[in-house]
From TrEMBL:
Residue ranges annotated for the Bifunctional inhibitor/plant lipid transfer protein/seed storage helical domain, each copy included: 18-101
Stated name of the protein: Bifunctional inhibitor/plant lipid transfer protein/seed storage helical domain-containing protein
SUPFAM superfamilies on file: Bifunctional inhibitor/lipid-transfer protein/seed storage 2S albumin
Stored InterPro entries: Bifun_inhib/LTP/seed_sf, Bifunc_inhib/LTP/seed_store
PANTHER family (alphabetical): BIFUNCTIONAL INHIBITOR/LIPID-TRANSFER PROTEIN/SEED STORAGE 2S ALBUMIN SUPERFAMILY PROTEIN, BIFUNCTIONAL INHIBITOR_LIPID-TRANSFER PROTEIN_SEED STORAGE 2S ALBUMIN SUPERFAMILY PROTEIN
Pfam family, one: LTP_2
Coiled coil: none
C-alpha cells in the first residue's frame, strides 16, 4: 500500500516537473509550491489533517496567484483542486470565491 501511494506521488511530481519544462509564467515558483504540497493535494492520496509546514511556507512565499497560473489540464488531472483550495485556506492564503485557478472555478460560500 505504501509503495503504491509513493508511486502515485512520484507520478504527480513528474507531471509537475514536465509542465515546468513547457516554460509557463511563474513556472519555477508555482511548481515548487505544488511539489511542496504534493501529499496534501494529490488525487490518489488521502489528505493529511493539515498541510505540512513546508507546504504552507511555499504557499505563503510564492502566493496562490502564481500557483494558479501554472495549473494546466495535465496538472489538474493529477491533483484534487478542492484539496488545493483547502490547502490555500489552511495556509492563510485563501482563494477568492468564484475566482479561477487553472480551469477550476473556486466555489462560492453558500
Amino acid at each position: 500500500m505504501k509503495k503504491q501511494i509513493f508511486c502515485q506521488f512520484l507520478v504527480v511530481c513528474m507531471l509537475l516537473w514536465s509542465s515546468q519544462i513547457q516554460g509557463n509564467r511563474c513556472d519555477d515558483s508555482g511548481i515548487q509550491a505544488l511539489m511542496a504540497c504534493g501529499y496534501s493535494i494529490a488525487k490518489e492520496l488521502s489528505s493529511p489533517p493539515k498541510p505540512l509546514d513546508g507546504c504552507c511556507t511555499a504557499v505563503r512565499i510564492i502566493g496562490m496567484k502564481c500557483v494558479c497560473e501554472i495549473i494546466n489540464k495535465e496538472i489538474e488531472s493529477a491533483i484534487d483542486m478542492q484539496k488545493l483550495v483547502n490547502v490555500a485556506s489552511a495556509c492563510g492564503r485563501p482563494l477568492a470565491p468564484h475566482s479561477q485557478c487553472g480551469s477550476y472555478l473556486v466555489p462560492g460560500v453558500a
